[in-house]
Amino acid sequence: MKLWKQTLLALATACSFSAAHAAPIELDKVKVIVNEGVILQSDIDTSLKTLRANAKKSGQALPSEDVLTEQVLEKLIIDTIQNQEAERIGVRIDDTRLNQSIADIAKENNQTIDELTASVASEGLTYTAFREQVRKEIAANEARNALVRRRINILPAEVDNLADILAQETNATVQYQIGHIQLRFNDDQTKEELEAQANELVKKLKSGEDFSTMAYTYSKGPKALQGGDWGWMRKEEMPTIFADQIKMQNKGSIIGPFRSGVGFHILQIEDVKGLETVAVTEVNARHILLKPTVILSDDGAKQQLSEFVQRINAGEISFGELAQQYSQDPGSAVQDGELGYQTPDLYVPEFKHQIETIAKGQISEPFKTVHGWHIVEVLDRREVDRTDSALKNKAYRILFNRKFNEEAGAWLQELRASAFVEVVQENQDDN
């Protein structure tokens, strides 16, 4: 026992001697408590260093040190809250996606990865710290996008109204080559019989019958002997009954039958000039969703889906049967997991990546999104001409972006207001 005490005393003396002569090392300090997380002095210093370096490069003047520190601190608080939300809903950014994002950053700056690394180092940041900073920013964006999207409601009438405004702007330059068939009211046919004949003609045209031949044969309109061809016209040059029916349809569209005071009319858009054409790939996929719970862990959900894939590939059970029994997406489960033809952009990034990259008929490995764990199978892909809906899509994007920015601001304010935030005073660090 005596020897043990002497050893302890010698160690204590040596430690005291070393501490008295070594250079003092300042420990990192907790500056702000944000809910269950903290912001360190080093976080503030790093952000200030980066901000000053960027301002120096761009020649941007900065406010006073106190104001700058206050602004940086508030941004760090907001960023911390957003990252806590990302953790809460299970957003995870893997190294593959992170590496791709960093490659994109380098490309935008016309740099190689090595040049970007050197640039980061010149700002006083380690490459490891920079990677984690980017990872956190991506996760925060994912959380914000997922949670704010739920708050956005766009009514069809809003889209239609804005699309009409955009169409009026576009119509000033768009020209249409119009084909026209007119069926007149007469004493030999009732209105119902004439309408039935018009519907039958439309059915034949949509099945591939030649429009000019049908116009020569049936039309009683002013251009019947020209095969119904009215030539090239802007909407402002057309008869009103034509202009009222044309809503930015694309080449080959059949419009009608529609009624006027003299009978029924059928239009065909033979060609279009000056109208943006849009072709998109739609994917018909089906999936099985499992949501982790207190009972079912992440690993458990992933393992269960892996077993599903093995059973399907072995022919023991069909994808549809498993989707009906186990999928926790009620809307698709009753359809054997099928989601129908959709553009990939409608899905969250991880899901979008899977349906864009796996082959038709292939079942993915289990993967995680903000909704839970999935496996997905691509049933089919098709190219779709969306020219007729291009303006509606554009109108929807404009409305979505407007509302997203409004709702994102409100969402952040609500998060900030409900968060526990405490600035740690200096005298508390000494206790």
UniProtKB/TrEMBL annotation:
Residues 1-22 form the signal peptide. It catalyses: [protein]-peptidylproline (omega=180) = [protein]-peptidylproline (omega=0). Transmembrane segments: none annotated. PROSITE patterns: PPIC_PPIASE_2 (PS50198). Gene3D superfamilies: 3.10.50.40, Porin chaperone SurA, peptide-binding domain. InterPro entries: OMP_Chaperone_SurA, PPIase_dom_sf, PPIase_PpiC, PPIase_SurA, SurA_N, Trigger_fact/SurA_dom_sf. The PPIase activity resides only in the second parvulin domain. The N-terminal region and the C-terminal tail are necessary and sufficient for the chaperone activity of SurA. The PPIase activity is dispensable for SurA to function as a chaperone. The N-terminal region and the C-terminal tail are also required for porin recognition. This is Chaperone SurA. It comes from Vibrio gallaecicus.
